[in-house]
Amino acid sequence: MNILITGGLGYIGSHVVLCLANKGYNIIIVDNLSNCDISVLENLNQLTNSKLAFEKLDLSVRDQVESFFKNYSNIDGVIHFAALKSVGESVRKPKKYYDNNLYSMLNIIEFMPKAIPFVFSSSCTVYGSVSNQPITESTPHGIAESPYGKTKQICEKIMDKEFHGIKDFKGLSLRYFNPLGAHSSGLIGENPKNTPENLLPYLTQVVSGKREVLTVYGDDYNTRDGTCIRDYIHIIDLAEAHLKAIEYLFKIQDKNFIDYINIGTGSGVSVLELIQTFEKSTGLKVNYKIGKRRPGDIEVAYAETKKAEQILRWKPKYSLSSALNSAWNWENKSLD
Ligand code: NAD
Ligand code: WQD
Q1: What are φ and ψ of residue 82, in 5° steps?
Q2: Which residue is closest in CA terms to ligand 2's atom 28?
Q3: CA of 289, nearest ligand number
Q4: Residue whose CA is closest, atom 17 of ligand 2?
Q5: For the chain, which terminus, N or C, has the lower number of CB atoms within 10 Å?
Q6: Mind listing the pLDDT tens digit for each residue in 56-90?
């Protein structure tokens, strides 16, 4: 089976490439290297003991996508990660996000072979702020916190037949909560090109001395310790969910199919609890201070995970401690 993995040299994509390659799938990676380094390909080749197919192209450019699918007419499934993902940058440069994320989605759906499995990287951000927790998949799209979030909502709409009008389309939208951690080899992991916005890469960079102090954004929320609550999922569990998703779609006989599934642990963890768990698991101190709330932050978000369990037969296996240790192992290796 030939699986196209777009954005396959990025953080999540690289772990999924490894997971599927280890299961015997033939992987074709497409990436424009806008938020990753080509060295990830060498590390993936080393980890898979193979030479993975790679094409550098910009999926938001229609001609490039058209000729890619002419050259690779034997694709059996697509997992689409390629997107810009910085919430802050999307507020400053919304058009850049709409252009990149929406055109990429439209081009792939237009030119990929019909009725093959298509898995989309969506996000819990599509829900906006939700009062009923855990969040179920039937919760409608809320107010997106950013243009980035809006692109995820629109991409989900683009997957709908009413929008694309393609007769045979089989898609699953996976709504990830907060991925973290890295592969145990320390050869692939999250490698933000700019100052990290997300909690864990910032935290590990503070511990490694690259940054001075972690600011906890607000301790006056209506939660057990006043800090925000999220659902942190180990990247290896998340990668496994993609394997289950593509295998599930292969079994679906109906050529017109679409569904939406949360990928999280089902447990909410506060920012202070995450810091304490990191300190306990690694034996290292995190230099942090309490700061002001970050505009746009949601108080609480964690997933209802029954649908993933029932439909994908997937459940997370790894603990938060293990994810935090793996993130630290990755950060530590990058210091060598
Ligand atoms: P990432 O930036 O590490 O990976 C995305 C990859 O896509 C990068 O390697 C980048 O170079 C590539 N890319 C971007 N635009 C492209 C284009 N036009 N053509 C070709 N390649 C392009 O991000 P990630 O954290 O691995 O996220 C992967 C996907 O998961 C994204 O769609 C993201 O929105 C989604 N997601 C991420 C998170 C998270 O917290 N990391 C949470 C929910 C959803
Ligand atoms: C987690 C918690 C912060 C940094 C983002 C996107 C969302 C989705 C997942 C892609 C929050 C707190 C953070 C820091 C802090 N991505 N924090 N100090 O905000 O849940 O979601 O990633 O789809 O769209 O918005 O993740 O890692 O930024 O924050 O206190 O320096 O950590 O306030 O409570 P978030 P995050």
Answers
A1: -55, 120
A2: 198
A3: 2
A4: 199
A5: C
A6: 999 999 999 999 999 999 999 999 999 999 999 99
